[in-house]
Structures are given as C-alpha cells and as structure tokens.
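Posting this for the archive.
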Amino acid sequence: MTPTLPTVLIVDDEIRSQEALRRTLDEDFEVFTASSAADALAILEREFIQIVLSDQRMPGTSGVQLLREVRERWPDAVRIIISGYTDSEDIIAGINDGGIYQYLLKPWQPEQLLLTLRGAAEMHRLQRENQRLSLDLKVASPVLRQRVAGKKEASRRRFGADALLRAPDSPMNALCALVAKVADFDIPVLLTGESGTGKELLARALHYGSGRSEQAFVVENCGAVPDTLLESELFGARRGAFTGAHEDREGLFRQADNGSILLDEIGETSAAFQVKLLRVLQEGEVRPVGAARPVAVDVRVIAATNRDLEADVREGRFREDLYYRLAAITIAVPPLRDRRMDIPLIAQQYVDSAQQSLGRTFDPLGADVLACLQAYRWPGNVRELRNEVLRMIALSDGPRLAAAHLSPRVLRAAEDHQEPELQLLAGLDGDLKTRLEALEARIVKESLIRHRWNKTRAAAELGLSRVGLRSKLARYGLETG
C-alpha cells in the first residue's frame, strides 16, 4: 500500500496565494484549501488534518483566531501562521501562549516553507508516538500487566473453545479442537450451520483464543439491518452525510480495530454491499459514508451464515471473490439433533443459570425429562432447547421440573421415539402373552434365516439347547422337517 502523505490545510482568502502554496507543497503533502475560517472548520470536521497553515489577515476571522479555535477542538493539529506584519500583537500573543507552532513572514521562500512544514509533520508524528508510548508505559506497569493477564485468562476460560459444553463422544470435540488450532492464526473464518447452533459462541472462542483477545469483539447481524443502513453501521458516517446523521458515527469496523468482528448472516447481504465489503477486506481500510478519504483498520473478520454459500456462488447470488476472501477456513457447526449426547449438559446449564438469576433451587433434570428432550429433533436448535427449559421452570410449582410441562410437540416426539421392539409390540394384536409369543416367533425365525436354518448355530445364538429350539419350532409352526 502507498505510504500516506502528511495532510496540510491552507487557509487563505486570496486564490492566487492558495495556488502558489499548493504548487510548492503538492509533492510532499496531501493539500486541502479553504478561503475562509468557516470553510476551514468544515474541512477539519470531515478530514484528518495534521497541519493548518493560515494567513493572518482574512475577512471576518483572523488567522490567529482561527488557530486558537483549532487548538481547542483539534489539539493534535500543528498550527502555522503566515503574515506580512512581524509586530502584530495577535501573532505575538498566539506564539507566546503556545497556540502557534511557528509563523512565516511574507514573502515566503519555497525552501523555507518546505523546511518548516516538514518539521511540523515530524512534530505531529512525534506527538502521536509519544501518546502511544505513554499508553504503552501505563499498560506495562507490573500491576496492570498482572490485571490484563488475569482478565485475558478469565476471558479464555469463559469464552474459549474449552468452555463449550459437550459430551465426551460429541462431534463438537473435533470442531472445538479445530477452533483452538486456528484461533491464533490471523485468517478469516466462515462458520456455517443452521440458526441457533452456537456459531456466535464459536466466533467468540476464535477471538478469545487469539492474540487479539484483549481488544474488542463486535457482532453485527447483517440480515437484521436494512442494506441502506448497513454500510454506515459497519463503516461509519460523517455528520450530515444523510438524513438523520446528526453526528459522526465511528462504525463497527473502527470500533473493532486490532480486534475481531463477526458478520452474522453474511449471506443475506446485497450485491452492492458485497462489493464494498470486498474492498475493505482487500485494502484493509473503510470509507465512512460522506468522507473523502478512507481510514485504515486492522480487523479479523469472522463470518457466519445458515445458507449454502457455495450454492449461492454457483447461482450468482453471492460474489465468488468475496466468498474466498471470507472462507479461508470453513467450519460447519452440526445441528443439535446430530449431537443428542450434548442435550443433557446444555439443558442442565440453563437450569443452573436460572437458579442464579431467579434465586430459586431446582432438582437436577430427571431421566424422564432428558429422555423427552433427546427424542425431539430440535429444528430451532439450542435456542429452542433453552425455551423449553424456561417453560418447565415457569410452569413448575416446586423444585422438581416435570416432563408434563414440556411443549406438546416435544412430548409427541417422545411417544413416537420408541424402541423398535416396543413399536413392534404396540402394532401386534391380542393380550400381552399373545404379543410376546408373536415377538418370540419372529426372533426365532430371523435367527434361523440368518444362519441358513442351521439349528445348532441358531440355538447357540438364542441361548437354547437343540431340544429347546425344536420345541419352539414345533410350537410356532416353524419346523421344516
């Protein structure tokens, strides 16, 4: 990326003088011009100006008056005055009170002008570096270092991959191991899976397991914000850029500078927005709405979607180049129905959390409740499971959470999710003795067929003697001679 030139604002009501100054400075500086103090303040509102070079004698507001206001509102800007009058009381006062860095006497010489402004640019750089070093020294103190390290470790325990609840045989184990492995590599990650599967939790694990964990982690649901507002929400906006923009908006990318941002439901964005996001990822800079210049940002982007983005790329609904920018690594999060072994742990965690927030005590979830929860398919995934637990808590009269308080759809699933043998018995006619005999006959016949009617092997499998097997064959009419 081309190095950024120092910025200088020339304020002079004489156009020819403006142009002479611009021509002298144009190669070494990014030059802005204004013909009045009001125009200068407007430019300072929307641009990052490092040096203000102002003529003293202008209609209305003098150069010294302007630079005093600049000092109040933009104290980091280096202020220089140009005048043809060395004995001006205003100029002397401006220098004495520290508001003006230097003044140039007319007629100025190009070499002297360049030398002065290069010194001003270096002074601005040193001021910013000194501010940064002062902050670093504060953070480097032993007490603060210990505090920061403790906070970082607490965040890792709370949000890291190891904090995600899962059973020893859960498919989430391999997924969490992958998250822990790639967290410290500063590459974009795409999380895919149904809504409510815990993609945001994994995104937090990626952030808090990385070197950016001490910086901000911000989240934006791209599907919940109208496309017209999404750009200003993420990239920022200048005051007055559109109706309702009454003040500068920093934007989430700048809030997440040196940290991470989760762009949830990225598949819902428009083609126009995808072009702008691609530029941000390519250039490492955002352009606030209404701003003339972009602003550099250093952000790790994590994207999430419940759509099949590869299919959307093939069908032209999502840009292919943006997809590959976002999906350096793709992590597919399984739905809750594919990890039923995790349901008891997650459900019990919701109960424990409710105990703390409500100040009530509940018994551990019983086997009947867990059986019902594990039989259901959970189309709403973890969010739906949480709602069912809260429903039982709200309807309970005491510490015991009863299966009867689950939603009818969950109870119906439990009734339908019977063991195959029980389903078979339920479909047979007659009393219990008759049904059991019919089931036994089926089991004996299946064993004989499996062993090609070898009675010795079938009897051994069924735990019967040959005489016992012959008796059952005769009883159920299965003897073939």
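The domain at 162-334 is CATH 3.40.50.300 (Rossmann fold). The chain is about 50% helix and 10% strand.
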